[in-house]
Amino acid sequence: MKFKGQNKTLTKQRKVKISMSENVFYYKPLPALLTSAGDAATAADALKLEVPLLQNSEPKIRIDIAALLLAINIYETAKTELSARRETVRTVTESTLDRMILARDNFKPVLGSQFGQPWVALGMPDSLAFPRTAVELQPIVGSYKEYLETHPAQEVAAKEITAAAFDALFTGLNAARDAVTAQELVIDNAKGIRDDKAAILRKRMRSLVDELNMLLGPLDARWKRYGFNMPGAQETPDVPTNIQVILIGPNAAAMKWEAPARADYFRVWRRIIGVDAEPVAVGSPADLDFTLENLPAASTVEVYLSAVNNGGESALSEKVTIVTH
């Protein structure tokens, strides 16, 4: 169960009142945009006889929602595939590294157990340690292959220390890395399409607001059916802050707070731990103080406050916790 004000933004992007055609669609994240569009489509269908929309009817909104959902799904699927391909690079790199270590140790009786000039031919410029990334390991794999092509007597077929084996390792690393690069391009393209579809839906919602402006009055309550604030109403108040709560008896507490911008009155919420699943409204004072009464003894109580005007209700304040005796 959600209570009023729970899902509103804690702070405004801008303090000045914005026009309804701008609304908040420029700033909404995609889940919130889709929720808003779905609510608007539902209202457009329910009120189609009362509010006949021509340019932004329910089917048109649904088409744009579906297009964005498909684009999001394609993008998320591409991200999952990229993660899988990166994991393939990691496993291929680890298995290649194991083979490189085996070959290196096999070469030590011939080239020396310490780094020296003979090892440079195997692509190891300054130590016998191997890098751990595919991009750094791959050229050394190529050098091992070339070395064994020119020194076939040092091949050990039983341990797969052969030019052909290292050629296969080189090809495997290269293919795994190329697959990641290719998928990164797929993701870039999918993200571009997703963002284009989101821009279309944002434009649709702004266009809906503009069309509603021609059909509804600025204080028509039906604005809220579409999920919009009434354009003639005040901007939603700020969230109350600096809330102080002190016990004034075994079953009562006194509250006071600072007045937030645009508040006409307030709503006090109380949640008794172990009793209330969600905060419960217990008063609607117009002043900057309130007395909580009939609190249960030996209980932990969370207290919240919201601010209200004819434009709506703020989110809840941060909780203040008190413990009764």
Walk me through what this model shows.
The protein has 325 residues and is of the alpha+beta class. The chain folds into two domains: 18-232; 244-323, Immunoglobulins (Immunoglobulin-like), CATH 2.60.40.10. It has helices spanning 30-46, 58-111, 117-120, 134-150, 163-215, and strands at residues 244-249, 252-256, 265-272, 280-283, 289-292, 300-309, 312-313, 320-323. Strands 3, 4, 6, 7 and 8 form a five-stranded antiparallel beta sheet that branches. The longest helix is centred in the N-terminal third of the chain and has 54 residues, at 58-111. The radius of gyration is 33 Å and the shape is elongated. The model is unreliable at 1-23 (pLDDT under 50).
Short précis:
The chain has 325 residues and is an alpha+beta fold.
What secondary-structure arrangement, pairings included, does this model have?
Blueprint: H1 30-46, H2 58-111, H3 117-120, H4 134-150, H5 163-215, E1 244-249, E2 252-256, E3 265-272, E4 280-283, E5 289-292, E6 300-309, E7 312-313, E8 320-323
Antiparallel strand pairs: 1-2, 2-5, 3-4, 3-6, 6-7, 6-8
Helix pairs in contact: 1-2, 1-5, 2-4, 2-5, 4-5
